[in-house]
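A reminder from the course coordinator: this example appears on the midterm review sheet, so study it carefully.

Given structure:
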């Protein structure tokens, strides 16, 4: 691994440790200082000891170190997701071609992943199948992961609709509910909220209400501040859906749900607004049918 010291410094400072606190009892303080300046090497055993002190797994460190040494990869996902939400298929095709060429040149898995992501998004707009070999690669990847990084959260966020549902909920619960075995370097707060909402939508629309209630409880627990208006509004939206589902006070449930959709529209999250409006209308039809029986 290249420039290990740069990544160690980044992690140490983000965790609020001094160089002395990190190195004490593991390596000499002055020696460690030179490691952070990429002037000294470090053995694998000593590196693992330092990472344990920082509460970072070796898998996560390897991933973050790769990002530090290939900073161009950091924002590569953004234009792909932007093109998808804007339904710009031609841009997705251009990006797909670019990543295919990059992968052929570099054999870098990140380039391969972004190529697969472009292929997946294109398949949602055109009458083309998403190749099974791509899906198999994603499944094999998750089978090998024991500690989830920011990158793994993004992969699940990208492919949750395509992966087997039970597997998706299993990984999600391990990431966020049971052990929270994922990196401290999470998605941005807004994107994390949207990911939770996507998972909640998946659970509710597939009538996996037990999962939906667990995710809803997590959102209510995690997001309570003045800056969390989107999460709070969408919590009330799903409270509304569960009220409608119970058929106890349908009008109140619809009012709560409509307010949640309004917040999405105010935030210019039009894709998500449509997604949740369709969800509401589907539930209203379901309740209406059940009342007429």
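Designed residues:
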């Amino acid at each position: 691994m290249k420039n290990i010291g740069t990544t160690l410094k980044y992690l140490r400072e983000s965790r609020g440790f001094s160089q002395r606190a990190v190195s004490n009892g593991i390596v000499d303080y002055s020696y460690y200082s030179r490691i952070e300046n990429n002037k000294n090497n470090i053995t694998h055993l000593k590196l693992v000891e330092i990472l344990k002190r920082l509460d970072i797994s070796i898998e996560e460190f390897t991933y973050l170190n790769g990002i530090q040494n290939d900073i161009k990869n950091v924002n590569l996902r953004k234009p792909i997701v932007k093109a998808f939400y804007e339904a710009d298929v031609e841009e997705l095709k251009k990006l797909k071609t670019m990543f295919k060429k990059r992968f052929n040149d570099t054999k870098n898995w990140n380039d391969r992943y972004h190529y697969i992501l472009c292929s997946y998004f294109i398949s949602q707009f055109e009458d083309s199948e998403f190749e099974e070999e791509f899906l198999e690669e994603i499944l094999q990847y998750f089978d090998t992961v024991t500690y989830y990084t920011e990158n793994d959260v993004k992969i699940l966020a990208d492919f949750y609709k395509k992966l087997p549902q039970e597997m998706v909920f299993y990984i999600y619960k391990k990431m966020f509910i049971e052990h929270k075995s994922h990196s401290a370097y999470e998605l941005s707060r807004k994107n994390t909220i949207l990911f939770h909402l996507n998972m909640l939508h998946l659970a509710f629309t597939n009538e996996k209400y037990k999962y939906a209630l667990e995710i809803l409880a997590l959102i209510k627990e995690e997001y309570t501040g003045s800056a969390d208006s989107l999460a709070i509004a969408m919590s009330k939206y799903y409270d509304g859906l569960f009220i409608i589902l119970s058929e106890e006070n349908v009008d109140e449930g619809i009012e709560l749900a409509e307010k949640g959709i309004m917040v999405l529209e105010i935030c210019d999250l039009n894709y998500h607004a449509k997604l949740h409006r369709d969800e509401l209308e589907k539930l209203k039809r379901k309740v209406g049918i059940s009342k007429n029986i």
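Residues 270-292 form the longest helix (23 residues). Residues 24 and 118 are 47 Å apart (CA to CA).
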